[in-house]
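Recall the central idea of this unit: under ordinary conditions, the amino acid sequence of a chain determines the structure it adopts. In this exercise we apply that idea directly, starting from the sequence alone.
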Amino acid sequence: MTPASESDFAKLCEVCSRLDIRHMSHPHHPCRKPLPCSTAPIQRRYEADITLGSVDEIKSRRLDCDLCQLIAKCLDKEPSDVSGTCRMTQSREFCTFNLPRKVRVQDHSITHFHLTQASVIFDTSIANQFQGPSLPWELKERDSQRTHYILRLQLKARAGSCVEPGDPAVDTPQTEQEFLATIGGRYVPAQGCRPSLPVSLEQTRVPTFVIDVIQSCLVYSPSQCRYVALSYVWGAAAVYKHLRENTQDLQKTGSLLSLPIPATIRNAMTLAHAIGERYLWVDSLCIIQNDSEMLQSEITRMGSIYSKALFTIIAASGDSADSGLPGVEQGSREQLQKILRFAECELLSVIDMTQSGIDDTPWAQRAWTFQERILSNRILVFSESQVYWSCRAAAHSEERALEGVKIIERVHLPFPQKYSMDCLSWKPLQPSEYRLLYDDLLSNYRQRRLSYQTDMLNAFNGVSEILAALQDDTFFWGLPGSLFSYAMTWNFTGHSARNQVHVPIIGSKGFKEMVPTPSWSWAAWSGEDPNHPPFLQGGGDSWVRPVIDFYLVDTEHQLVSIKERPWQDHPDNGTHASWREQGPHQPPSLTHHSLSQIGRLSFWTSLVNARAARRWRLQGLHRVGGVEYTLSPPSDFRSPSHYRSEIVQQDFIVVAASSARKLVLLAIEWEDGVAYRVGTTYVDEEAWVRLEDRQWRLITLG
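Accordingly, the structure predicted from this sequence is:
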């Protein structure tokens, strides 16, 4: 290594020289702990913000100051009629997982570098201009326009004052070939970062078709096929599909070269070929879209398709399949990371300025991509500004100083780690852990957007497949059989309504039947507010215990018993017996006409027609809350002013019980002798027993 000369160092103006670069790059408590370091990131502010000057002042110093030049380039992108001042503020400190390979450290007790981020904030003068009266949300939007970040800077302490010869010019864009070579060289999946999958998944067959990126055509997947998967959004693009009519043509060598394949898929083929992988799986081409039997078969195996992929390419940039993968094609993105060198540290501009990483992208808001992300053991994410890699062993980005930083996954890849299959031990969970995982997965999934409500269950099937394999469980219309009573207590916190969706069911004999999604499944309901997803409430208690024997009409029109498992981590306190009648408990018979439809439940339970208060929350004139029921309300019952309520006579049935001596009830309505769920509530067991005209009745729940 050659010593750095003063000519290599950045030049600063008098104003920027007031910045304490040494203080910013050297934290008060250097971490010498073994990596991975468990020390939480330290957040602190400078003793005082440093005012850098007005727009005109900064631009006037750009030729004599490298930092002003960097800030001026950001100001050039602001509207020309906006003036204001800039200041340096808020630093965030964290440490990298590993030392750069090219840097020698004199003090061998130092195990890693500390890294600090600072921000340049632009305070505009737009506040002095009268813009007329504003509504509250407009005021918030204007405030964000007045003061906002224009530049983030990351500082990396240098181990010594040496510069590696041939250090790459950070502000020089890569060519297409260099970019692909970088990905292939750095993001080669390690053998140890893929967990051993459950036997039931390991033994599942590979996808029917994959794309051979060398021959540019579809092929039947070879045995033990090693493939890369693609996760993307279709959007408004005209996505070329694999159909029965073109399946032979798509298998001809070179066929994909002349077809109108969307840019994202074509870029994924280029990427896979460049890094030495031959096979690529893409849903629109690897599933025959008008073959209902194959479509249903592949959809139910999404869990194994994504979890068994070598890694998944995530196209988190753009809003359609034509958006492409930025950086794969020459000129498809502009990425500049400026570096300013000082005697004891380096100051670099942050590539990705987004506050929420990929969380606000169309890809992250689509329901289908939810399972594609969490089921993938390794991901290669293409955002607008850079590429991220994440697996069990590491997280990488193209940020030069952020390489190996612990915070990457949390800031830029914001999916909570507890939702990711790569963090599961692939050992059966305790019922309480399983319940919490199912709750989180369902609630987060239902915040996503679907173009077609008929896909409500399809887009969750991969998650169901993985959980079923993990717990040796069976799912019924989105509800886990081993936790069926608990799962029946789901409830929307926001306004919801039956979506009246019918889905195709194909039996073992190949007959297709359109079946309505049963009202007891969360998939039969659509919330009008995506910010209020299904909320699984358990009668006011998190411990819901099975007290009803449920039977279901399956896809073969057979009546099957739903086998719930005892919760060994929650002791049975012997309650919930006083309300159970001495009447019949024998299994129902399929001869009853109400059990002719797939998906209907049949069970004996306690039923009451009771006076109840039904209320829902309002915001202005709009209904925003879910329906709430209160049994036997007092005569002077009143709801808060932001609620609307009414007194009704309503039928209720018991479906579960809790450890707090409460019963979980479904509010039901009847149609042709079949009950349909309209809401849920709970009641004290003693209060239920005191109700008059209780009946022990065989219920068919559609």
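The first helix runs from residue 21 to 25.
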